[in-house]
Structure formats: C-alpha cells, structure tokens
C-alpha cells in the first residue's frame, strides 16, 4: 500500500508514529512523510484523488496538519482518523457537548472565552477543574476548591484561549487511560495531574467489562478508530473526562505493530485483524 503520514514537528522523533512508519516500511509498504509545520505546501496540488490509500495524522492541537488531512478527505481519500472526528475531540468544549448529547457519562462542562467569566459558575459546582479547551498532556489543569481561589489564578489562565470548567469527580487520585486500536482495548492506570502526591508510574491494569463497553461507545460516538480516553472511577461509576485521537499508546504491547496493522486495515476499508509482531531491527540513531 501507499500511505501518507502527516507528522507535526513536535512528533518528528517520537516513537509514535516514527516506529509505526518504520514497521510499515519493513513490511514493504510505501510511506510518504509530510511535515505540515516545517514545509511549504502548494495546497492546490499537494492532494490528488487516489494518490495514497490512506492519510494518517499525528498532530498537536491547532496544528496545520489537520488542514491537509481535511483536504485529503475532500478528495475522497481514507483518513485516519476522520478529520471531523479529530476536530470533535480536540475541542474539549465541543467534545463535552457531543458526548453528553449522545449519552456518555461526562461531567457538566462550562466554556468561557475569558477567565473572568468563570466567576459566574455556581458555588455548588465546586470543587472545580479548570483547563484549556485545546489542552493536552495535563497542561494548565487546575483544581479550585472554592470560588475565592479563582482571582489568584486569573493571570495564569489569560492567554490560554477558550477554557472549560467541570465539577471535580471524587476519585482515588488515579486516571484509567484506555487505548483503543480498532476493536482491541488496553487499560493503564496513572497518577492524576490533580493528585501529585500519588505514585507516578503508569502500569497496565485489567479492563473491566463496564469500562470496555464505555470505550467502545466513545469510539462510536466520535467516529474514531485509533484513540484513547481518560476515565475516572467516581462514586456513581466510570466518568469520561478526556478523549484523544492517536495517543501515545504507552504500555500497549507491541504498539507499533498493532497500530500499523490497524492503519493497513482501515486503508483497505476493513477492520484491524491480529497484529503482525515480527521484530524490526533499527540502527542506533536512525531517524526518519
């Protein structure tokens, strides 16, 4: 197959997707790599119908790669993930609205273009978790115990763009991260950014039927094939607090082969099958 990977500068040397690209090369597939943030693109010619079997995007929030992915989709090509699905989860305010309307267990979510507007949130909704609507990797996530804590936080929140705020879900101080590759699910446990006193190490944990069913529902709601979600085990059951397209897939066994296999299956118009796990030697210092 002939594939095109759109890799933002932040992920140029990242194991995901670099190892996936190497694995596809080793299996005999042609992979073209475009750097959306580091190259000039003639948009009227960069995408042509039938040029690739699939386009795959690994991007940062607001990165230019999504424009190229949407251009490929408009030309009728397969994209991984779907561009509209990526936009639907990259904007956390939009993701919350979509998820709640489709029956996902998600916290009440407020959105504010100016941090001062958060003062209008009722005191009954505190403690409150505040974070950027386009945030990732725990960036600028804050827990406010009471409304009188907001004023001190305003200078830090300015410049973060659209903000979301959600009532804190009582939990044990750890997030359950579920990685979804086609029809396969893998769960890890890691320290919540709101509980820095907890052990930091991320580790594999058994995936309950309830959380597995919830993960499958998330994929169906947002139209994602390769994704991850953060789940809190609250007093009333699991709650989805974040959804990510094309995550790191940390702790997933032989993640490169599994993701590469999923990409090939999606490019062929099917569902991922059992991953090929033949080791691929990579020379020290080898880069793409």
UniProtKB/TrEMBL annotation:
Keyword Protein transport in annotation: no
Keyword Ribosomal protein set for record: yes
Keyword annotations: ATP-binding, Ligase, Nucleotide-binding, Ribonucleoprotein, Ribosomal protein
Stretches that traverse the bilayer: none
Signal peptide: none
GO CC, one annotated term: cytoplasm
One example of a Gene Ontology biological process annotation: SOS response
Positions of the ATP-grasp domain: 96-270
One MF annotation (Gene Ontology) recorded for this entry: ATP binding
Superkingdom to which the source organism belongs: Bacteria
The name this protein goes by in its record: Ribosomal protein S6--L-glutamate ligase
Origin species: Actinacidiphila cocklensis
């Amino acid at each position: 197959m002939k594939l095109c990977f759109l890799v933002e500068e932040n992920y140029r040397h990242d194991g995901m997707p670099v190892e996936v690209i190497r694995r596809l090369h080793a299996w005999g597939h042609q992979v073209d790599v475009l750097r959306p943030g580091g190259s000039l693109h003639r948009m009227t010619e960069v995408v042509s119908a039938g040029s690739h079997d699939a386009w795959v995007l690994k991007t940062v929030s607001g990165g230019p790669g999504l424009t190229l992915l949407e251009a490929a989709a408009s030309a009728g090509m397969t994209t991984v993930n779907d561009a509209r699905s990526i936009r639907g989860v990259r904007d956390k305010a939009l993701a919350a609205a979509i998820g709640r309307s489709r029956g996902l267990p998600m916290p009440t979510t407020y959105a504010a273009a100016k941090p001062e507007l958060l003062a209008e949130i009722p005191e009954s909704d505190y403690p409150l978790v505040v974070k950027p609507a386009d945030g990732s990797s725990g960036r600028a996530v804050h827990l406010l115990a009471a409304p009188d804590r907001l004023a001190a936080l305003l200078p830090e929140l300015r410049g973060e763009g659209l903000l979301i705020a959600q009532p804190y879900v009582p939990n044990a101080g750890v997030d359950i991260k579920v990685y979804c590759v086609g029809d396969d699910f893998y769960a890890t446990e890691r320290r919540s950014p709101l509980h820095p006193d907890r052990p930091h190490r991320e580790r594999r944990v058994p995936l309950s039927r309830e959380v597995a069913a919830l993960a499958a529902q998330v994929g169906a709601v947002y139209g994602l094939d390769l994704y991850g979600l953060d789940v809190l085990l609250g007093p009333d059951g699991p709650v989805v607090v974040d959804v990510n397209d094309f995550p790191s897939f940390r702790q997933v066994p032989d993640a490169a082969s599994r993701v590469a296999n999923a990409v090939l299956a999606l490019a062929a118009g099917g569902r991922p099958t059992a991953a090929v796990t033949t080791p691929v030697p990579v020379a020290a210092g080898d880069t793409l």
